[in-house]
Amino acid sequence: MRRRPVLRGLTALLVVVPAVLAVAPARAAEGYGATVSTIDDAFDQQVVRIQPGQSVEWTMDGRADHTVTADDGSWDSGRLTPGGDFEQTFTKPGVYPYYCRYHGSPGVGMMGTVLVGGVDLPGPSGDVVPPLFIPAGVLAGSSSPAPTMLLASS
Length: 154
What we know:
The protein is α+β, with helices and mostly antiparallel strands. The protein has one helix at residues 3-29, and strands at 32-39, 42-43, 47-50, 54-60, 69-70, 85-90, 94-105, 108-116, 131-134, 148-151. The strands form three sheets. It has a four-stranded mixed beta sheet with strand order 2-1-4-6. A four-stranded mixed beta sheet has the order 3-8-7-5, with no helix packed on it.
């Protein structure tokens, strides 16, 4: 008589799946744009792009406390503990850099950028310029025992 556990499982599946699927349209209707996971001393995505009127949600998935603070101080999450979250809505196109007050500062350390609309990511040519890793000793005059990181130039 193993049919009852199977029927219970199917019944639960028929109840849970529609409920989960109903959440996605609700989030889209609320202006959902992106989620950034905050792990120990890093944001899992350093750059996210959303549209004006959408929100970014930061989830605290690591073991340490963090903040999500605009470089210009215009918004701040306050202290966020593990398991917490913070959401910020961006109404105007632009580039919004942010950082964690405990593990960085504007432009340094634990930081990220929200791009709203069709704006370019700031860089030498307005494009995304990835770092270029060069093994130690390859550059003339390099005495570094570790790999050297340079910004590629266009």
